[in-house]
């Protein structure tokens, strides 16, 4: 599982995040899953593009029945106050295309969109003196749409949870209950539910 704070499960008071929940659910279905969480808080596609292959190869040696799940983009789309968007849209799309095209040539892969964030609650600063960030869910929707286009171009299954969660009346409350950018445990449980019912995810386990 490769991504940023959402992949890590930041903000989840249980420590499970969505990755822990989907793996837990598959174990309950007698599916022997070994999961490696390669999420890093604040990572953009620039950082993920540099690191993902080496980190995955170290965990998936030759002959492994490996699978890759990507979730990124929230940090690309955020505004760094005083200097603009972290990773401009076209650069983010280029990074995403490079990551996923290499990934699917190596292992089966799935791609999950970024998720909506609170536009009103201040983003938590990881370190003293770190920049102030702002989020705009309309901008995030643009990134999601372009990612979906790249996924279709590459033939990678893509789950657009951003659109679904923007229509969810409870989602804003769940992000507010977390740290503003990352949801709380209930939010991650909701996200895990989308993934567990996704046909592209389920097909990986049909023969298990």
UniProtKB/TrEMBL annotation:
Mention one GO molecular function: phosphatidylcholine lysophospholipase activity
- Name the source's superkingdom: Bacteria
Name of the protein this chain belongs to = SGNH hydrolase-type esterase domain-containing protein
Record-linked Gene3D superfamilies: SGNH hydrolase
* SGNH hydrolase-type esterase domain mapped to chain residues: 1-189
Q: Which SUPFAM superfamilies match?
A: SGNH hydrolase (SSF52266)
